[in-house]
Amino acid sequence: MKIIIDKYAGFCFGVKRAVDKAFEEADKKKDRRIFTFGPLIHNDQVTGKLEELGIKSADSIDEINCEGAELIIRSHGIGEEEYRQIEEKGFGYIDCTCPYVSAIHKKVQEYYKKGYKIFIAGDKAHPEVIGINGWCDNSAHVIEDEKTVDKLPIYDKICLVAQTTITKKIWDSVVDAINKKYKNAIIFNTICSATEKRQESAEQLSKKVNCMIVIGSRKSSNTNKLYQICLENCDNAYHIEKAEDLPAGMLKGFETVGITAGASTPDWLIKEVIEKMQDNGNIMGDPVEIMENQESVVDDGEEMEKQEDTTEDQGNMMEEYEKTMRPVYPGDTVKGTVIMVTDDEVMVNIGYKSDGIIKKEDYTWDTDVSLKDIIKAGDELEVMVVRINDGEGNVVLSKKLLDTEKNFNKIEAAFNEKTPLEGFVKEIVKGGGIVELMGVRAFMPASQFDVRYSEDLSSFVNKKVNVEIIEFDPQKRKVVVSRKSILKKQNEIKEKALWENIEVGQKLTGEIKRLADFGAFADIGGVDGLIHISELSWSRVKHPSEIVKPGDKVEVIVLSVDKEKKKISLGLKQTVPEPWSAAGEKYKPGDVLDVKVLRFSNFGAFVELEPGIDGLIHISQISDKRIAKPSDALKIGEIVKAKIVDIKPEEKKISLSIRELIEAIGEEAKEEAEKPVIEEAKEETEKPVIEEAKEEAAEKPIIEEVKEEAEKPAVEEAKEEAEKSVIEEVKQEAEEAAEKPIAEEAEEAAAENITEETAEETAEE
Ligand code: F3S
């Protein structure tokens, strides 16, 4: 029969170390009271034995009242405060904190001091987690699963560690959630592989033996888990707590028996079980071969020695592992040589078994740059380790994180020396804005953005700003900056220079800062001067807003300076010529212009010809009708045409008249009104003739008409002439006939070819 003892059975390295130490101390110091800080392990046999040796368990330091007591600090470790209390009470202590757990304490303390918020993935009631939390003033967030991450606030910098015994599944889900929620999280995978390895090894062993014995407390979850694993792979798996639980003859007939044990099962308990298996009928005289899985066969006498060696090896292996990993712990600063550069990634040889990779976003703040333009293969780099494995076997590195660390020191120096720094406004948040200073996030309160308080800070986003650090707390990594203080200092310098150099008559450039009813204030370089409302324009101004608004850049003339009272009067209108100076050239009597009605008086209306030049239209000149007051004919603000009737530029007087224009227009209108009547009449008289002629022309053929016209006068005239001459002649002949006989007359008529009828008619006439 072969008995195969699992290589990873029983105590892990850390627990074994603590238990061994406790028994060693108990043996050495029998005269002293020794306490363990909480139960050393979850195994009644072990704790019972320790109690027999005078080592009791105390849940708190206050419980221990005897002088000169000594405490054994178990592998789970304790917090910083507990160490202080132990020392304060004058107790001695034997520190059996597992080195892995001590390493976590160191990391937590270091990053907490650097201002990181500490997150612990684990069970908040577990003594190891309570101990770890004690290295950051109990300020850590304990994350039991990935859902807890959703409820956590946002922090600038976080450092995540794990309880050494949490499952990989929980750890992976928490890391996933953390990476999604937090940028630049420093993550230390501090899960100890001892439990995982024990389970993997038990699984392998249970597959190849006929019977599997699992030793350990039934209260121990890790032992129960081991038993389940073995049962899945071996039909003859048994869970026992101690040697006595092994029934006689139980193993008879099995060729191979495997043994494993939970993390709190001591070696001597495993040894007792093996001894029990070897006697009284279990193997019934079969030859026994004891071996360790994956190891050569050892003889019976060497077994426990081998077991001890195995545990020792386990410890050594872990120590070796720790040594290997030390140079590339997350958070470490390492030097390396660039071996390859792409646009977005840099591969770096850091002397570790895996190469390091730096993503562009971990290299520079300049998102527009190509890495190829700023770094090349062969360059030496100093970087910070972010993660040991990016999932593809590369160590994740960051230059930005290291730069940020270095820059944090520069920021501290800038704070001490009050040196201004250039920052970049990232975003506006409640009460102010986030300013990035060399990669370090700083806060600028709203009141510190400008010399004057500004409600809307959105215009600052994505802009560079010069700031001064007004608050710096390295513990909390708090940096508060002010742009206002820089501006104030700059203004003080400018102000000093301005007061030294300012003179009446100077022309200066200023910016309108604010308006008042009586004028506008302009910043002329660190000092505000007043432009009185009367100095804003040559024309009458009711409110400064008619001429300027805040933010306007203006040229002004210094009108007066009172250095004692720190008052400066400025003029804006003086920067352009006084309008009356050119009025004599520009305006002449008789000119007709569009003018604006400004105001009324009893004797007329004042009108504006142009800004600064007003004229008067006397009431008698407002209308061609009699009016009682100017408002009867005009409205304020109305634009009307008026004629200049007189101008005296030296007296700044211009007289105008609307009436003259109306009258002139009236004459013209009259002429215009009459002219159409004559014309129309003329047109009307002409029209019928033309129209008729046209109609006639349209109705009758021209030839016919011409013919008729040609014929008509000839016949008519001939007829008339004929009649006329006939009458004349008949009259003459009638006078003669009165003197002549009728026969004679008839004969003469016949001779003249006149018809009888005609002759008779003529005779009758
Ligand atoms: Fe044990 Fe230490 Fe790991 S106590 S489980 S070796 S962390």
Describe the structure.
- This protein has 19 helices and 34 strands.
- With 765 residues, the protein is an alpha/beta fold.
- The chain has a six-stranded mixed sheet, with helices on both faces.
- It is elongated, with a radius of gyration of 60 Å.
- It starts with a strand and ends with a helix.
- The C terminus is likely disordered.
- It binds FE3-S4 cluster.
- FE3-S4 cluster binds next to helix 1, helix 4 and helix 8.
Distance between the termini: 193 Å
Report helical residue fraction.
Answer: 25-40%
Number of strand segments = 34
Query: What global shape is seen?
Result: elongated
Strand content bin:
25-35%
Q: Which ligands accompany this protein?
A: FE3-S4 cluster
**Which regions are unreliable across 5 or more consecutive residues at pLDDT < 50?**
295-318, 320-326, 697-715, 733-765
Average of per-residue pLDDT values = 80
**Main beta-sheet strand count, sense and barrel state:** 6 strands, mixed
Helix/strand structural class: alpha/beta
> Count of DSSP helices?
19
Strand order of the largest sheet: 11-10-12-1-13-14
Q: Rounded to an integer, what's the Rg over CA atoms?
A: 60 Å
